Amino acid sequence: MALALTTKDPFSIITLPGGDGAGPPAWDRLLAWPARGDAELPFTATSAAQRNLWAARLDEAVAQADRAVLLVAQGASCAAAAWWARLSPSQYVDRVAGAFLFMPDGGQGRDTLFASPAAALPFPSVVVTEREGEDTMASFARSCGSRLLAVSHAGPRQPTMWRQAQRMIERVAAGIVEYDMRVIHAFAPPER
Hints:
- By secondary structure, the protein is of the alpha/beta class.
- The chain has helices at residues 26-31, 48-64, 76-87, 90-93, 110-113, 135-144, 161-187, and strands at residues 11-16, 39-40, 68-74, 96-102, 125-129, 147-150.
């Protein structure tokens, strides 16, 4: 009898398409990642009430995840996810291991729809763009405390492409922890 070992992915992936429905999501087009994760929640809100309903649905999706969550957003969903992360209760946000924010789009009226404290996201994040040095993307990345990654189009699709994203977030998270530890040691009082 053969023994089969299965390894469970470390993250539950929640995809947050921008809601425009035009073509494949940016993560599929740019990095050949699958179009959908374990859960999908498109952002199409145009009012505070619709935004709040979307946020409650995201709370529910995060709460139902059986593993740490990786958010993968595009367009307006990037600003929505950042707003959610800054204002949601820690019982939800603490379950998020990281986020990939593809091609953030502020759009008309988004400043008031996503008004939130100017603070880094409470988890590691990467803003992904097609063009190096795009001011809008760099500004959004800075406002979220995110790393900025410019990529060109992807090669052929591989069956383990989500794992690639997971390893990237693991590396970003490990780098942040390492940096934080260096800062703590730099400011720690000398031992006597």
